[in-house]
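ok so I'm stuck.
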Amino acid sequence: MNGIVPSSIGQLRELTVMYLHGNSWEGSFHFHVRPEWIPPFNLKYIDISNCDVSPRFPSWLRTQKRLRNIILKNVGISDTIPEWLWKLDINWLDLSRNQLYGKLPNSLSFSSTAYYGDFPCSFNVTWLFLGNNLLLGPIPSNIDDSSSLEVLHVSGNLLNGNIPTSIDKIKYLIVIDLSNNQLSGKIPKKWNNLNQLYAIDLSKNKLSGGIPSWMCSISSLWHLILGENNLIGELSSCLQNCTELYSLELGNNRFSGEIPKWIGERMSSLKQLRLRGNMFTGDIPKQLCRLSHLHILDLAVNNLSGSIPQCLGDLITLTSMALLQIEFDEDMTYASYSDHMELVLKGQDMVFESILPVVNLIDLPSNNLWGEIPDGITNLSTLSTLNLSRNQLIGKITKNIGGMQGLETLDLSCNYLLGPIPPNMSSLTSLNHLNLSHNLISGLIPTINQFLTFNDLSIYEGNLGLCGLPLSANCSNPNDQNHKHVKDEEEDDEDGRYMTWFFLIMAMGFPVGFWAICGSLALNKSWRHAYFQFFDETRDRLFVFIIVNMARLKRKIERIGAHG
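replied:
not stuck anymore, here's the structure
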């Protein structure tokens, strides 16, 4: 739909609701009226989104004395927010994604849309959406005057300074979204009165310190989003009290220590776990396999070690098709926060919002994981993205990988995988992104189904034993090789096991040998003295041996010279 709203709308004297939202406009859709226009109707509700309202803030709204809900989202307004707006008895105000600017009362400095200026802290609005603007300055310390506020969205501005502790006095608050600003300092330690919070989003700021204990006492909390900050320390055990948590996003901070086992033991409702870009160490806890609703597991770019748990293949949500069920409360609590997450797919950072519930991902790259790829992971038939790159994985690509029919992205690059590409990998008809580079893979590249589209040489580079298109290396006898891959599969598996044990023994041999010698010397004083005495005597004998032989050699050379 495109065009202009007809002027005849001004004749609808009984109009109380104006709803121009949720359409897919083709071209442009305009809602232009004269600045001095006074409509004959008296609206209670107006929702105009994603169309052109004109650069000026619609002054005719001032005449709508019964107005309770105002939604002017992404409508191209480039103007100041008029002071009369805050005097209206508004319950729901959404001015996000515009180009508003100007200055409001100096008591507050945040807004929505592209707005410069301050924002009053005392008014009757209950749901306030002012995101994606250019608001400046700190959040005022007297924000608690807005005691009726339930939803506060001011993300995507230029707010700075500390988060005021006075927010604790907004006791009915269910959603607070201060993300994507320039806030600094620590998260307030005493927000003990906010016991109705459903979502906390403080991501993409400059916050430091740890996670305060008050967050652990909110039984109603579903979303805890603290990624992209400078938070440090180990994860506090008190977080295990958040048993209803749906999404835990702590990525790209400086958290350390081991990933707690209680995440899998206590957070049974968890669906999305993002801990990438931290300094976690130790193994991947097997308890995470108990999270029957988990469909996003992002542990990339840490210092994790050990093998990939075999039980990851038991994640129920990723093993069978499940109907997407989202229930909404009568108070629309769930609609007050739009769940979103930034994930890395196909090597690119991508933000997922509306389709996030159907994104199925396991992302474990850039760690120190070793061992073979567990065969059980092939049970995850609905997994769409699997990234195990830049680890120390060995052995062959599991021969049952063809069972992962939902796989769209597979990255196994920069490991020590060997053997041929399993023939049934060509049955992954949904696969559109593949990276097998920098391994020890050998043999003929499949030439059917999806592999006909994988013509980028970088997919296979660094595997000197690979041959066939699109590489320039030709296989000597492709038919014989295909026959050998089937006939000698058991022999290849045996070779793979030998190589696996070879790498494991090498990895284990050094620390065992080192501590067997150095450890015994450190613990036994008499052995230590005997060892160093032996070393000193051997050194002296070697020195004397060299000096004596050099003297003999010198005399021999002199005699030869004299006779010559």
